[in-house]
Inverse folding.
């Protein structure tokens, strides 16, 4: 038996009791050493029960020895565990004078890593040499946000408790001016914070600064978040040119249909009719003949429509209403999502052969209302 | 443990409720169907079987294995006697 436990027992009636034990567990290598002494081995998994049974049978266990590879492994593991415990104890003892952890409490706007790196750079890790009062003073001097700070060492942790000053939220933000994204005219300004760069009635272009992110406090420039409610007029224009005499191409009504069957976009069958139009336009229609990609057959129909030139004479007065409607639609198309149409007007430029309509839609929008810091762009 | 006679019984269907002894070169005695160890010493090992008793004499005897119904006696076996 390779892995097992060897028992050396002392007691009487060994044959009888060995029979009792053998009914529960296999017993190996039983040697009768003397009349009241015997040695035997059992499997390692039965060792505990055998020991209990021997005690119940009033036997004295003189020796108990573990045998085999598993027993050896357990002994080695025990040696390693004990060694690891000893080494870790030594390491803990060696490290005990040093601070290994920093705990920052109460920070809201300050960065925890920034505070920890400041302490690491400027103070020793040795807790017996570290003066917590000097840490408190240095932190108070370094960060103007701190109104109160206390440091205490607990074990190998330095606990820093910070109480911050109540500063306006703007102090922590990114300061960017309000910039116009439109061409237009300022009609109303309601400044909330910052310094105005424009005034009512000014015409502005895209990219012009509307509000600067600072204000002048008795000669001192102080940064604030730029915020204002600005009402602007922006202009959306369009133009359409009309010719009194013009030539238009219209369909005569005659057409020719050509049919092709394509496989992999290559024609495999064509039914082409003779077409001798001078002016024409085409319409093409393709459709799949099968519903799979294994054999991609397509039917391609091409229709040729004959065209002819027609001279059209239309005076501006006859076409004016239609042209105005087209010009307005074109101007509104430029406006996109128009909030309020404040005004609209048009001008007519007459020439000897043509007439041009310039249409203008005046839109009123509000800009400069910000909810997010650092997003100060007119929308 | 592999029960030799148990396997034989299973395959042949022979009903056996007795004991079996195999002596291998007087070095190892394998017994199946014993009813309990009676004497154990380096010169004599005795055990009960159905309707009798077996005694094994020799030198340096010891029980290589003992279970509920099998045992192996190892050593220099001189004599095996049934009573």
């Amino acid at each position: 038996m390779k892995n097992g436990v060897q028992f050396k027992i002392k007691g009487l009636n060994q044959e009888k009791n060995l029979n009792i034990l053998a009914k529960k567990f296999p017993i190996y290598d039983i040697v009768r050493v003397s009349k009241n002494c015997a040695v035997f081995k059992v499997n390692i998994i039965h060792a505990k029960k055998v020991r209990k049974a021997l005690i119940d049978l009033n036997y004295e266990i003189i020796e108990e020895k573990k045998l085999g590879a598993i027993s050896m492994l357990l002994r080695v593991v025990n040696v390693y565990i004990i060694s690891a415990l000893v080494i870790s104890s030594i390491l803990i003892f060696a490290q005990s004078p040093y601070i290994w952890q920093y705990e920052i409490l109460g920070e809201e706007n300050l960065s925890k890593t920034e505070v920890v790196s400041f302490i690491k750079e400027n103070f020793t890790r040795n807790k017996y040499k570290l003066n917590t009062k000097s840490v408190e003073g240095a932190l108070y001097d370094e960060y103007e946000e701190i109104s109160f700070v206390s440091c205490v060492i607990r074990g190998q942790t330095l606990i820093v408790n910070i109480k911050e000053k109540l500063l306006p939220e703007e102090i922590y933000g990114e300061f960017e001016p309000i910039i116009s994204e439109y061409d237009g005219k300022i009609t109303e300004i309601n400044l909330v914070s910052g310094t105005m760069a424009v005034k009512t009635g000014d015409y502005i272009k895209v990219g012009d600064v509307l509000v600067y992110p600072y204000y002048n406090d008795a000669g001192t420039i102080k940064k604030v978040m730029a915020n204002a409610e600005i009402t602007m007029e922006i202009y959306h224009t369009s133009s359409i040119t009309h010719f009194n005499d013009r030539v238009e191409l219209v369909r005569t009504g005659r057409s020719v249909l050509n049919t092709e069957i394509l496989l992999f976009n290559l024609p495999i069958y064509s039914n082409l009719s003779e077409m001798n139009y001078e002016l024409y336009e085409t319409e093409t229609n393709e459709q799949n003949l099968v519903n799979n990609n294994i054999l991609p057959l397509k039917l391609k129909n091409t229709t040729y429509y004959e065209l002819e030139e027609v001279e059209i004479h239309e005076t501006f007065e006859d076409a004016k209403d239609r042209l105005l409607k087209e010009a307005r639609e074109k101007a509104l198309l430029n406006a996109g999502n128009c909030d309020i149409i404040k005004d609209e007007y048009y001008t007519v430029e007459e020439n000897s052969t043509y007439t041009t309509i310039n249409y203008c839609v005046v839109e009123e929008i509000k800009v400069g209302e910000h909810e997010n810091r650092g997003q100060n762009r007119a929308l | 443990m592999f029960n030799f006679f148990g396997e034989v019984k299973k395959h042949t269907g022979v009903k056996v409720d007795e004991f079996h002894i195999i002596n291998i070169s007087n070095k190892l005695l394998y017994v199946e169907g014993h009813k309990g160890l009676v004497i154990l010493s380096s010169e004599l090992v005795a055990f009960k079987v159905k309707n009798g008793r077996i005694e094994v004499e020799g030198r340096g005897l010891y029980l290589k294995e003992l279970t509920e119904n099998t045992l192996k006696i190892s050593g220099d076996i001189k004599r095996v006697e049934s009573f």
Notes: The two ends of chain B are 28 Å apart (CA to CA). Residues 4 and 10 of chain B are 10 Å apart (CA to CA).
